[in-house]
Amino acid sequence: MQFGIFSVSDITRDPVSGKTPSEAERIKAFVEIAKKAEDVGLDVVAVGEHHNPPFFSSSPTTLLAHVAAVTERVILSTSTTLITTNDPVRLAEDYAMLQHLADGRLDLMIGRGNTAPVYPWFGKNIRDGLDLALEGYHLLHRLWTNDVVDWRGRFRTPLQGFTSTPRPLDDVPPFVWHGSIRTPEIAEQAAYYGDGFFANNIFWPKGHFKMLVDYYRQRFESYGHGAAKQAIVGLGGQAYIAKNSQDAIRDYRPYFDHAPVYGGGPSLERFMEETPLAVGSPQEVIDKTLTFHDEFGDYQRQLFLVDHGGLPLGTVLDQLELLGGEVVPALRKELESRKDPEVPDAPTHASLVKAKYGDGEARQPRPNPNRGDNVTGSSPYEDSESNVTYPTL
Questions:
Q1: From 252's CA, which of 2, 187, 244, 380 has a CA 20 to 30 Å away?
Q2: Which domains does the chain have, with CATH numbers?
Q3: Stretch 353-360: mean pLDDT, rounded?
């Protein structure tokens, strides 16, 4: 079981101090949060992708490359990489480069995002959002698993004999999670490829996300990747921890009441009761998180949102001390005791290399001139007969 944190990279006014951090402060704060997460024994640090204020992470590969340079062990991920508005060729190259720089400590979460205006900024139409996600990931998958790709689709110019560079480390692409809060077609896509499925698991009751996870597990099995219980599932969550519940609720209430995504809605107490939000002592957060296992069964990754809504850096670092020092060790022990031995661990680069090569030596791709347009400049419109076979759902 992997435990970690994720950030949506919001820049929000602190309702207690009245201060709004600058972009520079929030970017540097995320680096400090990532380093602290590794120091306290967490496994994963993830950051989202946004291209509009009040968010800062428009270039997660750049940010995570820096984090890779100042950490040694923690896995780097995204929460989310926009498959709809990014060019899949650019994604294939950027994340393969980051995979090399991080020595394999990388996976990514693919998603559509939830900001409508971003589509026209990148020349896309939100009405095509689902089709963009399906076609875009099909091309990304092919670019990572095939050295030479011929391609013709709806949403970008064709490719003829194209090779994305650099090739994935050890010729093993980064593991991909498909994230969704509402769309069964994305769960279907994850199952089709045998990839992971990540349910955000915040904002709404767990039952909403359980429907998506159950559907993904069923389809994972139907595509022949293994039993439903062996599907690779990740869950989100949000926690605010203090030594006792009274302090936690008192200290967190102004941040909840003024957070853009919470303020003006249900009360903190109602939200705690009806959604996965956990605010309380370490034991209360442990108990609440264990209900996820009761609801979803065995799963492989648990990420907590810890820096949202204007929380100052010092408070976030204190939260990580409690999360890594008290909450996660107890969760590891309890969830390990509950785990079905037939359920796999979360994939890592090392485990994927082992699965592909066994005890043999991993392939290390090297430059190899091919017939492609990225070598000779051949027109992509000449002699290109590619049949696109991504799943139409």
A1: 2
A2: 2-376 (3.20.20.30)
A3: 96
